[in-house]
Amino acid sequence: MQLFRSKIFVYCTLLCIAVLPLSAFAGDPAIEGRWDATVMVDGKAFPSWVEIYHSGHKRLVGHYVGISGSARPVASVEFSNNKLHFSLPPQWEAEDNDLIIDAALEADTLRGTLRAADGKTYPWSAHRAPALRKTTAPSWGKTITLFNGKDLKGWHALGNNQWVVEPGGILHSPKSGANLVTDEVFQDFKLHIEFRCPPGSNSGIYLRGRYEVQIEDSYGKEPQKDYLGAIYGFLTPSEMAAKPANEWQTYDITLVGRMVTVVLNGKEIICNQAIPGITGGALDSNEGVPGPIYIQGDHGPIEYRNIAITPAK
After folding, report:
1. How confident is the model at residue 124 (pLDDT cuts 50, 70, 90)?
2. Which of 232, 194, 193 is nearest to 213 (CA)?
3. Strand locations in 66-115 (E)
4. What is the mean pLDDT of residues 65-69?
5. In terms of Cα–Cα distance, which of 185, 152, 197, 172 is closest to 283?
6. Do the beta carbons of residue 267 and residue 256 sit within 8 Å?
7. Is residue 152 very low, low, confident or very high in pLDDT (cuts 50, 70, 90)?
8. Is residue 14 pLDDT above 60, yes or no?
9. Between 13 and 125, whose confidence is greater?
10. What span, in angstroms and rounded, lies between the C-alpha atoms of 70 and 214?
11. Residues in domain 3-keto-alpha-glucoside-1,2-lyase/3-keto-2-hydroxy-glucal hydratase (predicted)?
12. pLDDT, tens digit, for every residue of 208-255?
C-alpha cells in the first residue's frame, strides 16, 4: 500500500508540473528579443546588435554582434528594475578589456554605455528589431545589371578607391582597400554574382549593406559559420560547394524579409532560413529600411563579374 501511495504521489507531482502555465518558466518579455543597436564613437554612429532570450527557468542569455567580428554568445544577462547588464571576454587580443554593456530600458528603447576593448566608454542605445515577416510571396520586377563591365557607374567606394575594371568585364580589387557600395538601395531581391578568390584571400557580399554572405578560400573544408557560403557568424551552409581557389564561382541569393536562400555553384546550401540580425561590418543597424549591395575589398584581393539584381515589385 505504501509503495502504491508513493507511485500515486510521483504521478500527481509530474502531472502538476506538466500542466503548469508556460509563464511559470518564461524569462522576461520586457527585455527578451532582438535589438538593433548603435555605438557613438567620436560623434559617429556604428552599428551593433544584441539578442536576449531565456534558457531554463528565468535565466537570461543571448548573442551579441559588435562593430566588427562575428556573433558571440552571452553566457549571462542581468536584467532587474529595467536595468540591463552583460559582459563579454576579449574577442581579438588577450590583453584587451572585457566588453561591458550597461543600459536602462525605457518603453522599447535601451540607453546606456558600452565599455570597449580599449577600456574607453561610449554611448550605446538600441531599439527593438523589426520582424520583417512577409504574408505573401513576392512578385518579381525587371532584372537590373548592377555592374556594366566597363566602369564603376552606379557604385562608390567607402574610402580611397583601389577597385579597377579589367578587360572581360572583371571588377578587380588587387589589394586590401576600400569596400564598394551600390548607389541604389533595395529591399527584397534575387541577386546573381560571380567571383574569383585567390588562395588565402577573403571577401563578402553584404545584403542591404547589413548581412554578409561570406567569400573565402574554403575548398576542401567542412562548412562553418565563417567559411564560404555562410551568413557570417549566423548560418552554416548545409554542404561545402566551393571550387578551388582562382576558379570562377557563382552565388544566386534570394532575400525576402529576413528569409534567405543561398545557391553556391548550382547547389542550394541555405534554404529559406531567417537571418537573426546584422553581421559585423554592417553599414548600419536600421533593419527596417532598404539598403545597398556592398562588397568587401578590405580583406585581400578579389574579383567579381556578372552582377545583376531582380528586385521585388
Report:
1. very high
2. 232
3. 72-74, 78-80, 83-88, 99-106, 109-115
4. 91
5. 185
6. no
7. very high
8. no
9. 125
10. 11
11. 143-309
12. 999 999 999 999 999 999 999 999 999 999 999 999 999 999 999 999
Dig out the grid coordinates for 93 from the structure.
587580443
Q: How far apart are CA 235 and CA 204, in angstroms?
A: 14
% residues pLDDT > 70 (the chain): 91
Q: Could you identify the residue written with the cell 552571452?
A: 74
Q: Between vectors from CA 26 to CA 22 and to CA 28, what angle results, nearest 5°?
A: 145
Query: Would you call 234 exposed, middle or buried from its count of C-beta atoms within 10 A (0-12, 13-18, 19+)?
Result: buried
Distance CA 237, CA 299 (A): 21
Q: Is there a shared CATH topology between the 25-128 domain and the 144-311 domain?
A: no
Instruction: Please answer whether residues 126 and 114 qualify as being in contact, where contact means their C-beta atoms are separated by less than 8 angstroms.
Output: no
User: H-type helices in the chain, by residue range?
Assistant: 2-18
pLDDT confidence of residue 282: 98
**Residue 24 phi/psi, 5° resolution?**
-65, -20
pLDDT at 23 over 50: no
Lowest average pLDDT, out of 10-14, 45-49, 57-61, 139-143, goes to 10-14
Distance CA 208, CA 89 (A): 30
Q: Which residues contact 107 (CB under 8 A, 6 or more apart)?
A: none
Cell of 229: 557560403
Give the residue from 221, 206, 201, 174 showing the smallest Cα distance to 284: 206
Burial class (CB in 10 A: 0-12, 13-18, 19+), 203: buried
3-class secondary structure, 22: helix
pLDDT (0 to 100) of residue 235: 98
Strand, coil or helix: 14? helix
- The residue type of 262 is V
Domain ranges of the chain: 25-128, 144-311
- Any idea which architecture 144-311 has in CATH? Sandwich (2.60)
Please give the model's pTM, rounded to 2 decimal places.
0.90
CATH homologous superfamily for 25-128?
Answer: Quinohemoprotein amine dehydrogenase alpha subunit, domain 2 (2.40.128.120)
